[in-house]
Write a structure and sequence with these properties.
54% helix; homodimer; Butyryl-CoA Dehydrogenase, subunit A, domain 2; disordered N terminus; Butyryl-CoA Dehydrogenase, subunit A, domain 3; alpha+beta
């Protein structure tokens, strides 16, 4: 799977590239926010790929134990390299990281992804002096222990306790039940010697809710678990083989008072609890994490599309015309229908993640100046977008896998691993349904506010202009016009939000408690949140197409993709547009025929559109998706490495098969 | 995961069982076609579960090599047991097989699933004398080598050649290109010593298309590959770890003329080709295989639903009412919306598979009496149903997995393995899109025939009564009435078939070749085939509810499930019903509110409905789905067995982590 075997280009792929209507490099620059970023990315990638100490082993042939060990080894190499080569700055480090790990996961990702940031945002200066530089320099390794066996998304349900003992000025950390065992934190099982443990704080006989505590788990001498600590790996999972997701049970473990992170709330030596000044600041980190998830979702979908689109040009099958050569699979309309809407979604989500990142940094600036006004709106959007993009990404990777036929099912395609490692994003950092319901709660609140003539702004401003009455019959519409499409999605979202809000009200009026009413409408509420996110993604895609600094050919292909994204979404959700006759049946027929035209229009540019993602073979890790298209030769080379092929005759023959065959022959 | 740990029942599950409105045993008997079958099934299961020689190892903790070896060992034990205990008859053997293998796959399944049946149906009597009893007694082990690296579903594209040499009266088997390598056959890589190779037959300078040839692959003395044979394992896949799917390349391998299976076509010693008498007979086997796939799809979905529904009653999360205890996850409407439609689909597909099996046996009888009239209709239905049911099953298992939150992602849930092993059914035995298009071709043909007043019968009779005009406004409809629901699906299917046919005609009239026209409409054609299958499944479910020999309480719950299946499908495809105003927007609102009521109505019976599938824990292989609901204790017990927990301190600590930590500490 290395580029070393990239000799001659498969002629079918060469023809595709020669025939593209635009230069993919211009879209690469757009996706990576500028040529400078692209060149820097490529430079760092080369640095990693060419480094003899960073050569890659194919994970498919390794056991889980080997994969964990390799993950650890690679993490250490990577960190030492960063220090040696002086690679700093979050973007450079992340680019280099991706190039070093090549799709492999990192056992210590929670250390830098959660342990360090939480210390930074929630530790006092004195605590930072003590812990942060140790952690930054990997003199200690930490994880973030929040989720428990019996509780995930609902934080208030967590059972672990931290009880303050003023006599010794210590907290007693305890797992009162089996279901309170910390369960799932990455790096907890085997790697970490410290953890930030989230626990219910008890002092002076009262519970003050979840707070973070630094707990040492293992000896810094010999890594054995400390007294009172029961710790281990939670066992194999769908993916994440390299990560030692772990469990932790604490039996009255005592830690000094100073190990509670006290930047926001405090427990004084005598046990007095001091409230945090502002509890909303924690939302910032959550939004950043969710923005990263949107960006990861986009990139995972890009990878899957790259594999499926390229392979569909190399693979030939069946016949459209009798006697003619077998066509490329991508010439089948059904194949285009599977892949091109996902390709357009990958672009749409990429642009949505740009918006989220930009907004996050702008918002952080506002917040630091005391302006929290935009926080609820963007928080609601980030929750919904996280759910919306990961759901499409997860099922989309699976669609791409199946679009590659039998070979998609082989680990040689890279798609099973991509799916297994990417799909947890639908569950972690807030389960998707719960996320949609959070968004819905905000939307319904805004809808209510708009009824009392409160002015709404930003991404929810449109709710002030809700039109529940149908607006069809307003004459011939051009359903390829971008603003017309935005209008359709806006109408749908506004209508569905209004409907859910009214339904909620009806249930309450009929005597249900607000909670039961909410639960009774929750299917509709999820639906309205999805429609809101869908609208935002379309709106943002259209804005990007309009404002992007690209040449006309690139803008033309982006416009086509944007139309396809919107048109396909209308077809997938046609009932929502027909229900109130916003669209007529006849207009839907037009939409269907637009779809067929758009698929045909994307077809000649499909390979260039995935090339524009600029995912090197080393990171793509797919025999089917190779840039040079030399699939079959490399599929055979790959298969030969299968551990079952180490000997011509497998040892099980001697042990089991031979005696069995002999026994049976004797019976004849 | 054994039933040994089944001590006390989780009180939440006990309450569910106590509160059910019907006796699940009556549905168990309906699903298994009679009490006698259920008792026999349970007897055979006990026989396997209690056998000390058939105890089970958890696959999650084994390497692929270990799993292949275990698969082989277990296959041999299973066969010896069948012979010792005199277990015969296809149903008994299959029940016992399932109980022995417990979700594990069998490396030699192609031997009994394809090699033996093909010998039976395509070998002459003389050939059967020579090969069949050897194969039946496992004195030789065979596979069925059809698919090639470069060709799957499109059989005419296969490249392997078998050229007759009259001088020596031999066939020369040859793989002319890399892409002609046989690729994927189960058991080919390491286990089999013979194969039925499908190859293009050349004699007297002419090609006569695909024919089956018996080729010996490995020495019966020491299992080494014979001269000219290159053979091996194709490498790791998403699932199917126990199976050595293999590759095979032949370099001018000579086999005697008698090794071509000659029941249907023949090559005489001088090279004269003798045509088969009837080429349609082969369809019979294909239909049987597809009926089995429909049945397997139903059962896989049953397993996933059993896990998710039971776990959702044990798992408690969040709060509906402040201060109240955390509710069971299944009390959330959104969770019901994810799971209950799938539960209803599992029943629907089970009943559809009953229909397919019954029809297959009836049809076989007709065929043996020379009546082939029903063959095209049932062939088209079996292709479509295979695709329709496996697609819902595959994404349904994934939905169930995600509905179990984080723990669904652990192999302890059993769901990742179930998904990975079940999803290939979407691809093998005819890729799903190709299958739908086969069905569509038949439907369009029937539609055309109906236009010339030809009478259609059986499952397509309704196409004679196509109404493309809308029929709404005919007064208040009861959309919970089963016949009304059948009518809605019938209308939709007929309309979509008509629309696709008309579109096809329009493209042809506009000057496109029939092939290009077909391709240009293929998205619509797939859609009409799906609608046809959907209609069939609803129709058949309704018929089953009406005619089933069950008590009133069971019929009531079946009726609810059937309504839910149909109502949910209308919502999922609402555009199809609104487009021609067959349903009005107002009626769709009613349908939505019916859905909410039906979810609530299924809720108290959900556990009993999955219990009725009668899947023992030993086969379910899921900590989350245990019958006794003791999830958390057993999750912990399971995790402790993780290979990473063999030692408290993993060896990678000494090798990598310790030196790294020391280096970093020294720097501080």
């Amino acid at each position: 799977m290395s580029s070393a075997k990239r000799t001659e280009m498969n002629p079918d792929l060469q023809k595709e590239r020669d025939g593209a209507s635009f230069n993919p490099y211009s879209l690469t620059c757009l996706l990576h926010a500028g040529e400078e970023n692209v060149e820097r990315k490529r430079e760092l990638e080369r640095l990693a790929f060419d480094d003899p100490e960073l050569q890659h082993e194919d994970l498919s042939f390794l056991s889980r134990d080997e994969r964990y060990t390799l993950g650890l080894k690679k993490t250490i190499r990577f960190l030492n390299k960063c220090w040696d080569l002086d690679i700093t700055g979050i973007q450079d480090v992340n680019t280099y990281r991706r190039a070093v790990f090549r799709g492999m996961l990192e056992p210590l990702s929670v250390h830098y992804g959660m342990f360090l940031p939480t210390l930074l945002s929630q530790a006092t200066e004195a605590q930072q002096d003590k812990w942060f530089s140790q952690a930054l320099n990997y003199a200690i390794i930490g994880t973030y222990a929040q989720t428990e066996m019996g509780h995930g998304t609902f934080l208030r349900g967590l059972e672990t306790t931290a009880t303050y003992d003023p006599k010794t000025e210590e907290f007693v950390l305890h797992s009162p039940t089996l279901s309170s065992a910390k369960w799932w934190p990455g790096g907890l099982g085997k790697s970490s010697n410290h953890a930030l443990v989230l626990a219910q704080l008890y002092t002076q006989g009262q519970c003050y809710g979840m707070h973070p505590f630094i707990v040492q788990l293992r000896s810094t001498e010999d890594h054995t678990p400390l007294p009172g600590i029961t710790i281990g790996d939670i066992g194999p999972k769908f993916g994440f083989d390299e990560v030692d997701n772990g469990f932790l049970m604490m039996d009255h473990v005592r830690i000094p008072r100073e190990n509670m992170l006290m930047k926001h709330s405090q427990v004084l030596p005598d046990g007095t609890y001091v409230k945090p000044r502002n509890s909303k600041l924690a939302y910032g980190t959550m939004m950043l994490v969710r923005s990263y998830i949107v960006s990861d979702a986009a990139q995972s979908l890009c990878r899957a599309c790259t594999v499926a689109v390229r392979y569909s040009c190399v693979r030939r099958q069946s016949e459209i015309k009798p006697g003619a050569p077998e066509p490329q699979v991508l010439d089948y309309q059904t194949q285009q229908y599977k892949l091109f809407p996902l390709l357009s979604a990958a672009y749409a989500f990429y642009f949505a993640s740009h918006y989220m990142m930009d907004t996050y940094f702008q918002l952080s600036g506002n917040i630091s100046q005391g302006d929290l006004s935009q926080l609820p709106e963007i928080h609601a959007l980030s929750a919904g977008l996280k759910a919306f993009t990961t759901a499409v990404m997860s099922s989309g990777i699976d669609t791409c896998r199946m679009a590659c036929g039998g070979h998609g099912y082989s680990h040689a395609s890279g798609l099973p691993l991509l799916f297994a490692n990417a799909t947890p994003a639908c569950t972690y950092e807030g389960e998707n349904t719960v996320m949609f319901l959070q968004t819905a709660r905000y939307l319904v609140k805004c809808y209510g506010a708009s009824k009392t003539n409160e002015k709404l702004s930003g991404t929810v401003a449109y709710l002030s202009r809700v039109q529940t009455a149908a607006v069809s019959g307003k004459g011939a519409r051009d359903l390829l016009d971008l603003e017309e499409l935005v209008g359709a999605y806006q109408h749908r979202a506004a209508r569905l939000v209004g409907m859910a809000a009214n339904q909620l009200q009806a249930h309450t009026k009929a005597g249900k408690s607000p909670e039961d009413a909410w639960n009774s409408c929750s299917v509709q509420l999820v639906k309205c949140a999805q429609a809101h996110c869908h609208f935002f993604v379309v709106r943002n895609f259209v804005d990007t197409v309009r404002t992007a600094d690209v040449d006309p050919a690139s803008r033309a292909v982006l416009t086509t993709l944007c139309q396809l994204y919107a048109i396909h979404g209308i077809i997938q959700n046609s009932g929502d547009f027909l229900e109130d006759t916003y669209l007529t049946g006849q207009e839907l027929q037009q939409v269907n025929s637009h779809l067929a035209s758009l698929l045909a229009k994307v077809r000649p540019d499909a390979v260039a559109l995935v090339d524009a993602f600029d995912i090197p073979d080393e990171i793509l890790q797919s025999v089917l998706g190779r840039y040079d298209g030399n699939v079959y030769e490399n599929l055979y080379e790959w298969a030969k490495k299968s551990p079952l092929n180490k000997s011509q005759v497998h040892e099980s023959y001697h042990k089991y098969l031979r005696p069995f065959l002999q026994q049976n022959r004797a019976k004849l």
